[in-house]
Amino acid sequence: HKVIIVGLDNAGKTTILYQFLMNEVVHTSPTIGSNVEEIVVKNTHFLMWDIGGQESLRSSWNTYYSNTEFIILVVDSIDRERLAITKEELYRMLAHEDLRKAAVLIFANKQDMKGCMTAAEISKYLTLSSIKDHPWHIQSCCALTGEGLCQGLEWMTSRIGVR
Ligand SMILES: Nc1nc2c(ncn2[C@@H]2O[C@H](COP(=O)(O)OP(=O)(O)OP(=O)(O)O)[C@@H](O)[C@H]2O)c(=O)[nH]1
Ligand SMILES: [Mg+2]
């Protein structure tokens, strides 16, 4: 099952990918291009593409879209200023023909940071309840401790075979 991990730079995408793979926090530097790893959850194989989120790289996200079953959108919950940009990117993706059948998991990451937005606040800001044409789920998490990551994966596995 093909998965793309998207979100703005510094959101924690690469940190999450390697938590999935190794249950460890790896030292990351900004991703140029992408990382790809196979993650197996309860006999379900996910091929996860972690894509660089810097502004100059976002225009090439669409080259990863074909055959994507799941979008993991990672949000930096402390980065209030740029949530509007995340919202734009989210709706641009949802309108894309190649992602018509994709389900969306939103990770409200960095929940360890003081003063961060809750998943409910992010959900409201992104007007997730208005999304009717894609299955979606929001999960709060902390990539440094791994908290919340398993619940996100469980939602993904629970979606498989639903359609
Ligand atoms: N406090 C805190 N820091 C985090 C968390 N997750 C990631 N980080 C840190 O955020 C920084 C960016 O993480 P990356 O995983 O490299 O971010 P990215 O989304 O892959 O960024 P790009 O590759 O540039 O798109 C790193 O210093 C991480 O250690 C978290 O849950 N809490
Ligand atoms: Mg990265």
Automatic annotation (TrEMBL):
Q: Which InterPro entries match?
A: P-loop_NTPase, Small_GTP-bd, Small_GTPase_ARF, Small_GTPase_ARF/SAR
Coiled-coil residues are none
Keyword Ubl conjugation present in the record's keywords: the answer is no
Annotated GTP binding lies at G7, L8, D9, N10, A11, G12, K13, T14, G53, N109, K110, Q111, D112
For this protein, the record's Pfam families field holds: Arf
Record SUPFAM superfamilies: P-loop containing nucleoside triphosphate hydrolases (SSF52540)
GO function terms (MF aspect): GTP binding; GTPase activity; metal ion binding
Do you know which Gene3D superfamilies this protein is assigned to?
Answer: P-loop containing nucleotide triphosphate hydrolases (3.40.50.300)
Which residues hold Mg(2+)? T14, T31
> Looking at the keywords, is Kinase present?
no
A biological process (GO) of this protein is:
protein localization to Golgi membrane
Q: Which CDD domains match?
A: Arl5_Arl8
Keywords, A to Z, come to: GTP-binding, Lipoprotein, Magnesium, Metal-binding, Myristate, Nucleotide-binding
Q: Which family does it belong to?
A: Belongs to the small GTPase superfamily. Arf family.
Q: Which PANTHER family match?
A: ADP RIBOSYLATION FACTOR-RELATED
Tell me what this protein is called. ARF like GTPase 5B
The coding gene here is ARL5B
